[in-house]
Specification:
Blueprint: E1 4-12, H1 23-35, E2 40-49, H2 60-70, E3 76-79, H3 82-85, H4 89-101, E4 105-108, E5 113-114, H5 120-151, E6 163-166, E7 169-172, H6 174-188, H7 194-203, H8 217-225, E8 233-235, E9 238-239, E10 249-250, E11 258-260, H9 270-283
Parallel strand pairs: 1-2, 1-3, 3-4
Antiparallel strand pairs: 4-5, 6-7, 8-11, 9-10
Helix pairs in contact: 4-5, 7-8
Length: 289
């Protein structure tokens, strides 16, 4: 009897409540399945944690498994269902076809699909299309939910110079706020260019929001243009046009931004803010006087 070298692949959730898909549970599931087949020998169990199934690019364990198959180390791959393998129809078919050419089958246990069988690809195409459509709907639901929370004033994104953001709430960080005020004063009152301000901040050893002394004219310009400092909140400055790639793009009118005026405690009063915006418009670019 020929020995079948078997690998298992699972994509596990980071949600502690999602115990049904935990790595330990899936590992026991695969081991029990392999033990029922005496000619199967486990080579490895590959698991990616908390990574979307719509793209395989960032799934290191998935790619390691494919590399092992390409190296001739596997005969069969087990996975629970199509949605655990990939939610992108093109990826699913491309990988299973390549694996088939290399003599490696894929067995989707719950979906009862075996790519080694004649009708395997047809059934896989149908199931992967369903999985991809479910992923699209999930993406829409998540985006809709995020937009409603944004409208309620929940802040999405991380902390920045002068503000701490935690659990969707934004509060003033006094140490950082003093640096912000210094930058606005240097621009409006001292009439210094952003390049000069950046150099002075570097020379003074003052850290940016990331805790490093790496100021540039462009960095200072961004501080001066950030509407959060006058208490306003503008969200959805970027958007994700393709739920499959998750690639973000700058929102140039493709989607409506969510703007809340006087959302939080300002660091810079609105009169000063407006005057600085006029000054920046006069200068025209980050390094100008």
């Amino acid at each position: 009897m020929k020995t079948v070298r078997v690998a298992a692949y699972c994509r596990v959730s980071t949600d502690k409540e999602d115990q049904a898909n935990s790595f330990e549970n899936q590992q026991r599931y695969f081991l029990a399945c392999i033990q029922r087949n005496p000619d199967w020998v486990l080579q490895n169990i590959y698991a990616d944690e908390g990574i979307s199934g719509t793209s395989t690019k960032k799934r290191k364990q998935f790619n390691a498994m494919i590399a092992a198959a390409r190296a001739g180390e596997l005969d069969l791959i087990l996975t629970k269902e199509v949605s655990r393998f990939a939610r992108n129809t093109l990826d699913t078919l491309a990988y299973t076809r390549e694996l088939s050419r290399r003599g490696v089958g894929v067995l989707f246990l719950i979906d009862n699909i075996d790519t080694r069988q004649q009708d395997g690809e047809l059934r896989l195409t149908i199931m992967s299309s369903i999985a991809q459509e479910e992923s699209r709907k999930t993406s829409q639901r998540v985006k809709w939910g995020q937009a409603r929370r944004m409208e309620q004033g929940v802040v999405f994104g991380g902390s920045l110079l002068g503000y701490d953001v935690q659990d969707g709430q934004i509060t003033v960080n006094q140490e950082g706020a003093e640096i912000v005020r210094r930058i606005f004063h240097a621009c409006l009152i001292d009439h210094k260019s952003t390049a000069v301000i950046a150099r002075e901040l570097r020379e003074a050893g003052i850290p940016s929001s990331r805790g490093i002394v790496k100021w540039s004219a462009a960095t200072v310009w961004k501080v001066l243009k950030n509407e959060k400092y006058c208490g306003d909140l503008v969200q959805k400055k970027t958007y994700t046009p393709d739920y499959l790639t998750h690639e973000k793009k700058y929102n140039r009118g493709e989607e409506a931004m969510i703007i809340i005026r006087d959302h939080h405690t300002p660091i810079i009063d609105r009169k000063t803010w407006d005057a600085v915006q006029q000054e920046l418009a006069r200068r025209g670019h980050p390094g100008a006087l």
